Amino acid sequence: MSTLRSEMRQLLQSNGLWSDEADEVLDEVEKSLSTLDWCGDNQPAEVISAVACFVKISAADWLEQFRPNHPSIQILKGTCHG
Fold this sequence. Notes:
- This protein is about 65% helix and about 0% strand.
- The protein is an all-alpha fold.
- The protein has one domain (about 5-75).
- The longest helix is centred in the last third of the chain and has 22 residues, at about 45-65.
């Protein structure tokens, strides 16, 4: 089984981020969501879905700040609706 962090890393990479970009985003997200078990492999589907949306929004924000011309910004912003 995969961990929550590895699932979110794969999600970001499948949306166009390089591995180092994904790791930087996830380091920041983990600080914000520090109560989650990022190394555990038994998160409920609802938690994974909510975290995935937060991660995508956070990634878009991070890219806008550090890589403003990155092609994945609009893709990430368009995948979660509040």
